[in-house]
Every structure is written in structure tokens, then in C-alpha cells.
Design goal:
By secondary structure, this protein is α/β, with parallel strands linked by helices. 40% of the residues lie in helices and 13% in strands. It has 2 domains: 227 residues, Type I PLP-dependent aspartate aminotransferase-like (Major domain) (Aspartate Aminotransferase, domain 2); 126 residues, Aspartate Aminotransferase, domain 1 (Alpha-Beta Complex). The structure holds pyridoxal-5'-phosphate.
Length: 376
């Protein structure tokens, strides 16, 4: 029986293989490996694709978040609200930027930050910014989040690491907030052949500060006017990303077709299927179901699928406020609140394979295996 791995990149790279080799040759011939014409061209092409005046490339998505916070020039130890149910780099980035993460609850249906919880947490901690994570390719509910930001004087940073091509009521994810952070980790919807990231926005002041921090706070070169870091994107990755950007829409369309196939094939099973926010375009970075029932049911399904050669994953098993690094069960700096939905999700979510090139026959086989698990 053929294995269906949880993820595989080679199939989606095949169609671009010649163009990627040509890009490699071009960079090799140029003798420029950092901060050269490929990076400048990618920044221009990516910001144009997004519909924003600028993008600043950097080494990875975690740095992109750090650079958004640095660009805003927040006072040390500023509170930044983010969903507890998210990827670990989100809070590491907040900490690395000298800020303190404050965890908020997520929405029961869409698993993105709950605007009401955001408001409570921001008020209780006098937070300065929110990191709104578009989880799994699903947009956050940006309109009420924007309203809370106005009311509380918060900067809105969109974490678009899983949302290249996601839209919210006709607006591209990343163009609604003050700043947006993207990752181009190889498995993301837009992936490099290694690490890469970018931030984007409208303010020239924030752009200039992000550029400074990106390279040792230097302006001009070898003169440091502020503390900085090294977070450059390679010319090679920029050249590869220019090739990959041209295929992004087609790959996202394929992801959505596969997701629709899953939804039809699993419709009458006990699984809770991913809801799509009305009027918004879900980029299906991941296809995540909830396995309801007693603790351990998810693990039983994962094991059942594994025995049939089907790989799965859990995004994410430990919510931010439960991470051992924050101390036992500490939810945030101050305030009592419940993160029941987040904790339920962490126990129930299971990611099924969804990648360009997976094919509908594989999706059908996975759906059949799930049905068999439930004796259907
Ligand atoms: C991948 C990811 C990041 C971090 O990106 P890296 O390029 O791996 O540093 C940040 N936020 C979210 C939501 C992610 O999925």
C-alpha cells in the first residue's frame, strides 16, 4: 500500500524545477549572495502582489514578527496580546522583541483570536499591540479586531505566516492591519527552499526602522545608530521565491479543491470540519479537523490512519499559556480568565494531509479510512 505522508514538497516543486535551476544559475553567475538585485526584486514583486507600498525581506517568519514590533518602537516590556492557540514562534518573537506576551482566547468556530477576549486582555494589561494570527489559512475576524484596536489604542500586526492569499471580505490578509509578518518556510503556502520571511506595511517610518534593525542598526554601513540584529534574506532564496510567487494562486486553488473534497467525503462523520468564514477566502495552509469524544480519541484515529500508511500531525498540542517555559498553568501576567476553547482545541485537533500534488484519489482514500475508523 502506498504511503500518504503528512507533507511532501517535491510534487509541488516539480513544475518549477527548471525555473528554480535557472534562478540558481543566475545567482551563481552574479557572484552576489546577500542584499542584491534578487532581494530587491522580490521585495518589490511581493509587495505589489500583496497590494502594499513596501515589503522588507528578512531571514525567517519569526524575525519578521520581531521586526514588526521593533519597527513600532514600543517601550520595553510592552504587552502584546496574541491568541493562546497558535504556533510557538509567535510568543518567542514577542519575547525576543523585548515585549511580554498576553494570551487571549480563540473563537469556537474559526479558532482565531476572539475579539472580546482581546479587548479584555488589552484593557487589563494596558497592551500596546495585538498579533492577530490567521490560523491554518483562515482569516481572523478583522473588522471587530480593528474596532478593539481603535478603542484601546492598539497596533494591529497580522501574522500571515499561514495566510498567503487569504482574504477577509475582499481585502488581502496582511493589508488590513498596521503591519504584516510573513514566513516563507518551505511548507508554507509560499515557501522558499530554506528559511526566509518578510514584513510589509504602509508607513515609511516603520519600513525604515525595520530595515535598520534588520542589519545591525547601521546607517550608513558600519555606523550603528540603534541596536539591531542580522536578519537578511539570501539572494538565492529571493530568486527561488520569485519563481514560487508566480505559482502561488494556482497552488492555493489546488489546496481549496482538496479541502472541498475532504469536506464532501467527511461530511457525515463525527469529525468537526474546518468552517470557512463567510465572505472570506481560506488559503487552507492546513486541513484541520476536530476529533470529538473522550481524551485519547484523536490519538486512536491518528494511530488507525498511521497503520494504513496515512500521516497526520497536531497543530498545536500545547497552547501558549500551558507552555512549561511560562511556568505551570500561568495564563498571562495579570487577570483571571478561562481559555477553555483553546484547551479543548489542543486536545482535539488533528491535521490531515493537504499539499499540492496530493491528489483527489489520496483524499478519497483518507476519507474512506476515517469512515472505517467510525465503522461507517
Ligand atoms: C511558521 C510560522 C511562524 C514562524 O515562521 P518561521 O519562518 O518558521 O520563523 C510564525 N507564525 C506562524 C503562525 C507560523 O505558522
Amino acid at each position: 500500500m502506498d504511503q500518504i505522508p503528512f507533507g511532501a514538497l517535491s510534487p509541488q516543486l516539480e513544475a518549477d524545477a527548471d525555473a528554480l535551476r535557472a534562478a540558481f544559475e543566475r545567482v551563481l553567475q552574479s557572484g552576489w549572495f546577500l542584499s542584491g538585485p534578487e532581494v530587491a526584486a522580490f521585495e518589490q514583486e511581493f509587495s505589489a502582489w500583496l497590494g502594499l507600498p513596501w515589503a522588507v525581506s528578512c531571514a525567517n517568519g519569526t524575525d519578521a514578527i520581531i521586526l514588526t514590533l521593533s519597527a513600532l518602537n514600543l517601550p520595553p516590556e510592552s504587552r502584546v496580546v496574541l491568541p493562546a492557540f497558535t504556533a510557538t514562534p509567535c510568543y518567542h518573537a514577542v519575547l525576543a522583541a523585548g515585549c511580554i506576551p498576553v494570551f487571549a482566547e480563540v473563537d469556537e468556530s474559526y479558532y482565531t483570536i476572539d475579539p472580546e477576549s482581546l479587548r479584555r486582555q488589552a484593557e487589563a494589561t494596558e497592551a500596546r499591540a495585538v498579533l492577530a494570527v490567521h490560523l491554518y489559512g483562515q482569516s481572523c475576524d478583522l473588522a471587530p479586531i480593528e474596532a478593539v484596536c481603535r478603542e484601546q489604542g492598539l497596533f494591529l500586526i497580522e501574522d500571515c505566516a499561514q495566510a498567503h492569499g487569504t482574504t477577509y471580505q475582499g481585502r488581502a490578509a496582511g493589508t488590513v492591519g498596521d503591519l504584516a509578518a510573513f514566513s516563507f518556510y518551505p511548507t508554507k503556502n509560499l515557501g522558499a527552499l530554506g528559511d526566509a520571511g518578510a514584513l510589509a506595511g504602509r508607513s515609511e517610518e516603520w519600513r525604515d526602522r525595520a530595515r535598520l534593525v534588520r542589519q545591525y542598526g547601521e546607517n550608513p554601513r558600519y555606523v550603528s545608530v540603534m541596536p539591531g540584529m542580522n536578519s537578511r534574506m539570501d539572494e538565492l532564496q529571493a530568486a527561488f521565491l520569485r519563481v514560487r510567487l508566480a505559482r502561488l494562486e494556482a497552488l492555493n486553488a489546488e489546496r481549496r479543491l482538496l479541502a472541498a473534497r475532504y469536506k464532501a467525503g467527511l461530511a457525515d462523520t463525527p469529525l468537526v470540519l474546518p468552517a470557512e468564514r463567510p465572505g472570506c477566502n481560506h488559503a487552507f495552509h492546513l486541513f484541520v479537523v476536530r476529533v470529538p469524544g473522550a481524551r485519547g480519541k484523536r490519538e486512536a484515529l491518528a494511530e488507525f490512519l498511521k497503520e494504513r500508511g496515512i500521516g497526520t500531525a497536531v497543530h498545536y498540542p500545547v497552547p501558549g499559556h500551558r507552555q512549561p517555559m511560562f511556568g505551570l498553568g500561568r495564563a498571562d501576567v495579570d487577570g483571571e480568565f478561562s481559555l477553555e476553547i483553546t484547551e479543548h482545541l489542543a486536545d482535539e485537533v488533528l491535521s490531515l494531509p493537504l499539499w499540492p500534488g496530493l491528489g483527489e484519489a489520496a483524499v478519497d482514500r483518507i476519507c474512506a479510512a476515517v469512515r472505517e475508523f467510525y465503522g461507517m
